[in-house]
Amino acid sequence: MLLMGVDLRGGRYSRRAGAARRLADVPLAFYQGAMTSAPRPVTATPALPAMPGQRLARGTGRLLRSLDHAVLTEFVPARGLRVDLISLGPKGELWVVECKSSRADFTSDRKWQGYLDWCDRYFWAVDGAFPVELLPEDTGLIHADAFGAEIARMAPEHRLSGPRRTKVQRDFARAAALRLQVLADPESVIAGAI
C-alpha cells in the first residue's frame, strides 16, 4: 500500500470509522521513508481543458466535490449512454450532470432523457452565455466555468430503486478503482490487466 509515495507493505495501517487517522495509526515505515526520501518536485498546474464542455465539467466537479460528492467524468451507466459527470454523495445519492456549451450542443443531444433512469437528481451545467430558457424546468441548473460553479436551480429528487442504486454504485466504484489503477500503474492497460 502506498501513502504519500511511501510503501507501507508489511506495516500496520488502520482506519477508525468516522474519525481521522491519527499519527499513531501510521506505521513506522512511513516516518522512516518520509525522513529519507527526496522531496517531491513541484509540478506545474495542468493547462485548462481545451473543449468548452470539459471546462464546464471541471468547474462543476469542483462544486460537487465541495458538497462532499465523489465525482467521475465520462461515466457509462448502461450500454449506449455516457454521462458527462456522475457524483456519489455522502448518503449514497447519485447525481448526473450534463455539460452543454451551446444551443447546438443541447439540441443535438437526443439521449439525455435516458440518463434520468440512472440518478436521483439530474442537472445541466452551462456557462453564462447559454440560453437557459431551452432547458426543461423539471431539471436542475448549474452555472459553471472552468474554475467553479453554483447551483442556480436544485433538481427535483426521483429516488432510484434499491437494485438500480446498487448497480450504479457498484459500477461507479469499479470505474473509480480502475481509473486509480491506471494512474498508479499506466502499464497495466498495455499488459491487459485493465
Outline the structure in words.
The protein has six helices and eight strands; from the N terminus they run ββααβββααβββαα. It has 194 residues and is α/β, with parallel strands linked by helices. A hairpin with a 2-residue loop joins strand 1 and strand 2.
The gist of it:
This protein has 194 residues and is of the alpha/beta class. The protein has six helices and eight strands, in the order ββααβββααβββαα. The chain has a six-stranded mixed beta sheet. The protein has a two-stranded antiparallel ribbon with strand order 1-2.
Write the layout of secondary structure elements.
Blueprint: E1 2-3, E2 6-7, H1 28-36, H2 52-66, E3 70-75, E4 83-88, E5 94-99, H3 103-107, H4 112-115, E6 121-126, E7 140-144, E8 149-153, H5 162-184, H6 187-190
Parallel strand pairs: 5-6, 6-7
Antiparallel strand pairs: 1-2, 3-4, 4-5, 7-8
Q: Which key features would you list for this structure?
A:
194 residues, alpha/beta, two-stranded antiparallel sheet, 6 helices, 31% helix, globular
First-last Cα distance: 19 Å
Proportion of beta-strand residues: 15-25%
Which runs of at least 5 residues are low in confidence (pLDDT < 50)? Answer: 1-39
Sheet/helix structural class:
alpha/beta
| Lateral arrangement of strands in the main beta sheet | 3-4-5-6-7-8
- Helix proportion of residues, in percent? 25-40%
- Helix count equals 6
Radius of gyration: 20 Å
- Count every beta strand, where a strand is a DSSP E run of 2 or more residues: 8
Mean pLDDT: 82
Number of domains: 2
| Biggest beta sheet summary | 6 strands, mixed
The backbone outline, from C-alpha atoms, is globular
What's the order of the H and E elements? EEHHEEEHHEEEHH
